[in-house]
Write a structure and sequence with these properties.
Structural class: mainly alpha
Radius of gyration: 29 Å
Oligomer: single chain
Distance between the termini: 97 Å
Number of helices: 1
Shape: rod-shaped
Largest sheet: none
Length: about 70
Amino acid sequence: MDTIQEILLFTIIVIQLCTKAVILISKIHAFLYAREREQREREQAARDAKHHANHTRRQKISNLPPGQ
């Protein structure tokens, strides 16, 4: 093999490895972000449910006739 061919082959291998590393890092990042997003959504749903329960309870109390 000529020296130029070896250099080109080495360059192609390096580019492929870099591309695969970037794809792997991107997939790991997306996986971690999805887990964090799901956790935030669950926490938000719990806060919303608690707020709704408190609001409903306050509405029921405020709608009672006086003296009860």
